[in-house]
Design goal:
This protein is of the alpha+beta class. It contains 26 helices and 23 strands.
């Protein structure tokens, strides 16, 4: 142990004497280890850390499945099916439903929209969590119809400054008083990794309990300790078959799918995070190769010193340990700085990612991250130091001591190791750049997709009306009509529209509709699945959606017993097989709505997804509490923010405005995951290129220094400066060329694992590969000009005299 500490002290002294070498090596390792630590911290929190519930492996999401155009989809659950599952299944300790929603909070300085959830009381026991203060609601609260609410810890801190007396106080939610009965622990979320801030009891009406065709519940379940998920799946399949037999009209083709809760939370991010970690792993390997090259150059400079040590009795193992201790010291110093950089980067990445990193437990330093960082340091020390250490331990004492100068102390043949390391760096850099290039091209292709709307100069926001204050359709219609009049009067507003589900965010609601080409007696399962949306005002004009056939809605349409509807082109093409849709009937055999217009398709679920058959109803014929409004303006859209809030306040002083933003921001949010992954991969590719080019420069500079005598002789014999330039650049090509070829071949294989993350681009895209190789080749060539210029400036007389 004393010998090891002595080696570390000596290594520290040596590093202190060579500050440039030490800084270059430590910075290289800090970048590599820091990037790995940052990504691993996210992976640790999102993928590896268990959910904050007792026995989280027993928790599963229970979905209903249904047939769709792509095979089978999963979705929400109807209340009658939930009750049948509870009654017939024996696999569960508990089975409980919830429904995310938003509430209008009143009684504060200004009305607010709060994200919440209505939840069955059984959920508390299922998750095994108790209130931190007060209590959670129970089945008795539901039966009594009590207006009670449980607050999250964060909501309690932000809005009530952590006042312990808030339990028992009343707050207004959707115009109805609710009594605060409990505060949850800081780490609690339900749904998991969500931004839900309060919970109220979920109670079913008699109408909901009889509506087997209405699917709107999310269901969590906890398996019994002795029941495997496959066993529970088999039991639920049997129950689904019995329900289908009993209710063929609404349940044909429907089944049940059990998904581990943790799996449902990470499926969107898992593949991307592993890809990013592979990329930063390559960056670390490049950093290790750089440091190994620095250590090799340093070992060549210390050959005489090491030969003297060996002559005085130091064995090969002793020399090996000394050089490895220097590598370990560099790795530990780089790791310490990398840990600081990694933790700083985590905060930056979390703020940059938006919803790309699942919310929930904070991304923080824990023992697993510290252990990873320490392991990375040890592995880095071995990878960077083993080759220089082995070379140093095999010094030929007699030959080295007979050498006249360090500049001639190693034959040119020994440089193959340093050159090979740089080739590996270039190959790794090509792979990382290829991944970044593919993601960038994919993102660019995605952003070129026609969304079906004109997003420029569009302002959008949501209005969630309080169901407790707006009881009937006439009140809802009156509010939106008065608000539309005020908004149309604002300076710069050209048109105002509203829709139940804003495009580029989600599919919205859907249902199976009859149309006049179907047998009226056919079961519901034979009817096509159609997207259902309610629109008001000048929605199509405001959004720039093209009218292809027929007409748009007129003021008197909503007054009809069966109001007319408008469909999109996908509806006309798929439901009516491309035949003329105008004048056709849809809805149900007993309530037929006539199609009066066909409009262009809109990417409702996001740019990544296609379009489904879609039908638009006039808002006044089917009013909804929550609507998204869109304003086309001649001004900068966000300049109208204050005016919009005033107009809403004048319409109803207790009504908050939610999610006010431009349509361009909506588009960017819809591709946030792709943008985040592309940006990160681009950053890592830039770091990889910088490190690889630094390696190329280091090898060429070292080679020029070693060949000073040779270059001087050439110049003395008549070689021109252009000849020296060609000599150095040729050496550069001999170093970079094989690395480019190896990297190109390797990337064609490795980037195939990116295919699922690409849009409109093949993983082996030749244009991207060529561009990457040309960029690296050009940068390497430019880098080679610096040592080439220095070589061409050598004074042959001075160089020869120094020898």
């Amino acid at each position: 142990m004393n010998g090891f500490l002595q080696d570390l002290r000596y290594a520290f002294t040596n590093l202190f004497r060579s500050p440039v070498f030490a800084v270059l090596a430590i910075v290289s390792l800090a970048l590599g280890i820091g990037a790995n630590t940052a990504i691993f911290s996210i992976i640790n929190t999102v993928l590896l850390r268990p959910l904050p519930y007792p026995q989280p492996g027993q928790l599963v999401n229970v979905w209903e499945t249904y047939a769709n155009s792509s095979g089978q989809g999963t979705g929400s659950v109807s209340p009658p099916n939930l009750l049948d599952w509870r009654e017939q299944s024996e696999s569960w300790q508990a089975l409980a439903a919830y429904s995310p929603t938003s509430f209008n909070l009143t009684g504060t300085d200004r009305p607010l929209v709060v994200q919440g959830a209505r939840m069955e009381p059984e959920m508390w026991g299922l998750l095994g969590i108790e209130a931190n203060r007060g209590r959670v609601f129970a089945r008795q609260d539901v039966e009594n119809g009590d207006g009670v609410v449980v607050l999250s810890h964060g909501f309690w801190q932000r809005h009530f400054a952590g006042d312990p007396e808030v339990v028992g106080r009343e707050i207004g939610l959707d115009g109805t008083p609710h009594t605060v009965i409990g505060i949850m622990p800081e780490s609690f979320q339900c749904p998991p990794r969500s931004n839900v801030e309060l919970w109220t009891p979920l109670a079913f009406t008699l109408q909901q309990l009889n509506a087997r065709g209405r699917h709107w519940l999310l269901v969590l379940a906890r398996l019994k300790p002795d029941v495997a998920r496959a066993e529970a799946q088999s039991e639920m399949d049997g129950i689904a078959e019995r329900i289908e037999e009993a209710y063929p009209d609404s349940q044909t083709g429907r089944g049940v799918f059990l998904e581990p809760l943790h799996e449902s939370l990470i499926w969107r991010t898992r593949e991307a995070l592993w890809t990013l970690w592979a990329a930063v792993g390559f960056v670390l390997l490049i950093a290790c190769a750089n440091v190994a090259n620095l250590l090799l150059a340093r070992s060549n400079a210390r050959r005489r010193e090491l030969a003297v040590r060996s002559a005085l009795g130091a064995g090969s193992a002793r020399v090996l340990r000394q050089v490895l201790s220097e590598s370990l010291l560099l790795a530990l110093l780089g790791g310490a700085i990398g840990l600081i950089l990694g933790q700083a980067a985590v905060g930056f990445l979390a703020s940059l990612s938006g919803s790309s990193i699942p919310q929930g437990q904070p991304i923080e330093l824990d023992l697993r991250v510290l252990g990873f960082c320490l392991a990375a340091c040890l592995v880095t020390a071995v990878l960077a130091g083993i080759l220089p250490a082995l070379r140093s331990s095999r010094v030929d004492i007699v030959e080295t001591l007979k050498e006249r100068s360090q500049s001639q102390g190693a034959s040119g043949g020994r440089d193959w190791l340093r050159t090979g390391l740089v080739m590996a760096e270039v190959a790794l850099a090509v792979t990382v750049m290829m991944g970044a290039g593919l993601l960038l091209k994919s993102y660019s292709t995605l952003m070129d997709v026609d969304s079906g709307i004109e997003t420029e100069r569009l302002l959008t926001f949501s209005i969630p009306l309080s169901s407790g204050r707006y009881h009937d359709s006439s009140q809802i219609t009156s509010f939106y009509s008065r608000l539309q009049d005020r908004l149309e009067g604002l300076p710069g507003v050209e048109s105002v529209g509203m829709i139940s589900h804003l495009p580029l965010q989600n599919w919205g609601s859907n249902g199976r509709l009859w149309h006049d080409g179907l047998d009226p007696g056919a079961p519901t399962s034979q009817r096509p699945i159609v997207e259902l949306r309610q629109v008001g005002g000048d929605y199509f004009q405001a959004m720039g959606i093209r009218l292809l056939e027929g007409r748009l809605f007129q003021p008197g349409d909503a007054d009809a017993t069966n109001p007319p509807v408008i469909v999109n082109k996908a509806f006309a093409d798929r439901v009516f097989d491309g035949e003329r849709a105008l004048g056709r009937g849809v809805g149900s055999p007993t309530s037929v709505n006539t199609i009066v217009g066909v409009v262009g398709d809109v990417r409702n679920a996001g740019l990544l997804y296609g379009t489904l058959p879609e039908i638009y109803y006039p808002l006044a014929a089917s009013p909804r509490w929550t609507m998204s409004l869109v304003l086309r303006t001649s001004l900068e859209p966000l300049a109208l923010s204050d005016s919009v809030r005033r107009a809403v306040h004048e319409t109803d002083p207790d009504q908050p405005v939610f999610s006010l933003r431009t349509m361009n921001q909506v588009v960017l949010n819809s591709v946030a995951d792709k943008r985040f992954n592309t940006l990160l991969m681009g950053i890592f590719a830039l770091v990889a290129v910088v490190l690889a080019i630094a390696g190329v420069y280091g090898v060429l500079s070292y080679a020029v220094g070693r060949r000073t005598y040779e270059i001087a002789v050439r110049m003395a014999l008549g070689a021109q400066r252009t000849d020296i330039y060609r000599l150095v650049i040729a050496a550069s090509l001999m170093t970079v060329g094989p690395g480019l070829i190896a990297g190109a071949l390797g990337s064609l294989w490795l980037t195939q694992y990116l295919q699922n993350q690409l849009f409109g681009v093949e993983a082996t895209d030749p244009a991207t590969l060529v561009a990457v190789c040309l960029i690296l080749f050009g940068v390497s060539l430019t880098t080679a000009l610096v040592p080439a210029r220095r070589a061409a400036a050598i004074d042959p007389l001075e160089a020869l005299r120094s020898q």
